[in-house]
Amino acid sequence: MEKINYIFETKMEVRDYECDIEGIVNNANYLHYMEHTRHRFLKTTGLSFAEMHSRGIDAVVARMNLQYKRPFMCDDVIVSRLALKKQGIRYIFQQDLYRESDNTLCFRGTAELVCLINGRPDNCDEYDKAFAPYLTEEEKK
Question: H/E element holding 93?
């Protein structure tokens, strides 16, 4: 398996209401875990969704790929790890969720985001500047 250069990590606990009748986390909640991780990462870069939105800049999900490997159960602690790359105007977040107790990879997902500037897809200087420390020289072009 390829080595992933994670740039951010956060932890979350599975809450009972996130589980279905089988006692496992409902699949839709994984999208919430991914989004929460991206938002926490963005906060560390100094970006504010609300402030950028007020100026007509919105980062939106264009595509997602989800791979469910092992289920999370109630009270599991999730370690969410994130990697980032850029292709054209797309920011691609590789997001892996591990069960803390045994470091088992339970979920792997990618979220491709694009910036809409006044409703049109375009490069965003603010995101490029905030993400520059995490991108290769080729990705910065």
Answer: strand 90-99
Per-residue exposure over 1-36, b if at least 16 CB sit within 10 Å of its own CB, e if not: eeeeeebbebebebeeebbeeeebbeeebbeebbee
> What single-letter DSSP state applies at residue 135?
S
3-state SS assignment for residue 15: coil
Neighbours of 93 (CB within 10 A): 21
Taking phi over 0 as left and psi of -120 to 50 as alpha, with beta for the rest, 48 belongs to beta
| Percentage with pLDDT > 70 across the chain | 99
In whole angstroms, give the CA distance from residue 22 to residue 105: 20
Query: Measured in whole angstroms, how far is the alpha carbon of residue 57 from the centre of its chain?
Result: 19
pLDDT band at 24 (very low <50, low <70, confident <90, very high): very high
Convert the pLDDT of each residue in 94-139 to its tens digit: 999 999 999 999 999 999 999 999 999 999 999 999 999 999 888 8
